[in-house]
Every structure is written in C-alpha cells, then in structure tokens.
C-alpha cells in the first residue's frame, strides 16, 4: 500500500491524479501543510466501516421474522369525481 500526500491546491488542479493514486492506497489531502482529508476507494471505505456492498444487505434485518407488524388500514378519504 502506497500513501500519497497532496496539497489542496494540487488536488483541485489534478483530481484525476489523486483518484488514480487512491487505487494504490490512501491519499492525504493537506490544508496549509496539515492533513485535512483522506481520499479512499469505495471498497477501502466499506472495509473500514464494515458497510455491506449491496443495498439489499444493508436493509436486511436478521431476526425480523420474530417482529410482529400489523399496521392499521390506511384511509385516504377519497371522494368520487364530480363532473357536473
């Protein structure tokens, strides 16, 4: 893994370079010489945060089958159209 450091100015002038560098490792973006941000690929971010790769996995709730859910019927109060 390669760690790359770029200034905010360099990042703004050549974002593509920073994105390519993030394929090899994190890219630290500095502001006035101090690290302010980190650019990662989405895969690396998901590894760090433990996020699932698919939205279906994110929405799945283990044990949901044991939860009772009986919502009240929805009444919208619709009336027939008056064409007179």
Automatic annotation (TrEMBL):
Sections of the chain in a coiled coil: none
Superkingdom assignment: Bacteria
SUPFAM superfamilies hit by this protein: YefM-like
Pfam families: PhdYeFM_antitox
InterPro entries per the UniProt record, alphabetical: Antitoxin_Phd/YefM, YefM-like_sf
Stretches that traverse the bilayer: none
Full protein name: Antitoxin
Family named by the database record: Belongs to the phD/YefM antitoxin family.
Function text: Antitoxin component of a type II toxin-antitoxin (TA) system.
Keywords, in A-Z order: Plasmid
Annotated source species: Acetobacter vaccinii
């Amino acid at each position: 893994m390669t760690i790359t450091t770029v200034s905010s100015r360099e990042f703004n002038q050549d974002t593509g370079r920073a994105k390519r560098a993030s394929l090899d490792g994190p890219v630290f973006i500095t502001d006035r010489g101090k690290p302010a941000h980190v650019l990662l690929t989405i895969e690396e971010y998901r590894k760090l945060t433990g996020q699932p790769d698919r939205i279906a996995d994110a929405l799945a709730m283990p044990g949901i089958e044991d939860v009772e859910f009986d919502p009240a019927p929805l009444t919208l109060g619709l009336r027939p159209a008056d064409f007179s």
